[in-house]
Structures are given as C-alpha cells and as structure tokens.
Amino acid sequence: MESGVPDYEIAGWFGMLAPAGMPPAIAQRLRDEVAKAVTDAGVIAQFDQQGMVPLSTQPEEWRSYMKAELERYAKIIKDANIKPE
Predict the structure, then answer these.
(1) Is the Cα dihedral 56, 57, 63, 69 positive or negative?
(2) Domain ranges in the chain?
(3) pTM above 0.85, yes or no
(4) Which of 3, 54, 60, 71 could form a disulfide with 38 if both were Cys (CB 3.0 to 4.6 A apart)?
(5) Which phi-psi region, left, alpha or beta, contains residue 81 (left: φ > 0; alpha: ψ -120 to 50)?
(6) Can you say whether the dihedral through the CA atoms of 44, 50, 52, 56 is positive or negative?
C-alpha cells in the first residue's frame, strides 16, 4: 500500500445460483448440464473472446467460493470505510 490505496486484486465472475432449498439432486443435475455446455468448442471460443475462462465447479465448492468472496468484499468495504449514499 505504497500510495495509500489498498492493494486488492478484483476479478469478475459469473455463476449460476438456485433457490434455497433446491433438492441436491436437481442442483447437481443443473451443474452437470452446465458443465457439459461449457465444454462446447463454440462456448469456449465465446468465453475466450471475452477474456473469460469457463469452470465447472461442484455445488459445495461454488458455495464456499461465494462465501469467501462475500467475506473478502465485506472487508474491502469496511477497510475503505465505504458507506451507502
């Protein structure tokens, strides 16, 4: 933090979310179908043109990632003393 600006790396991401309480078998099926879709050469090419890398995580791994991201951004907001206007 040489210039007084916090040293944070920010990256964008997209993901699929489902309603709370969705049966695990349905959530897994959705995940599996999306995982298949992102292996298509055309889909991969579209992602690549946008500088994106498709990943197909498991539901629990995605849940953990989302939780970690929420905690990370909450800390950034708190450290920067950002307030809603």
Answers:
(1) negative
(2) 24-79
(3) no
(4) 54
(5) left
(6) negative
Give CA–CA dist 10/50, Å, rounded.
Answer: 17
The model's pLDDT over 18-66, given as tens digits with 9 standing for 90+, comes to: 899 999 999 999 999 999 998 999 999 999 999 888 888 888 898 899 8
For 41-75, b/e burial (b = at least 16 CB within 10 A) is: eeeeeeeeeeeeebeeeeeeebeeeeeeeeeeeee
> 3-27 burial, b for 16+ CB within 10 Å, e for fewer?
eeeeeeeeeeeeeeeeeeeeeeeeb
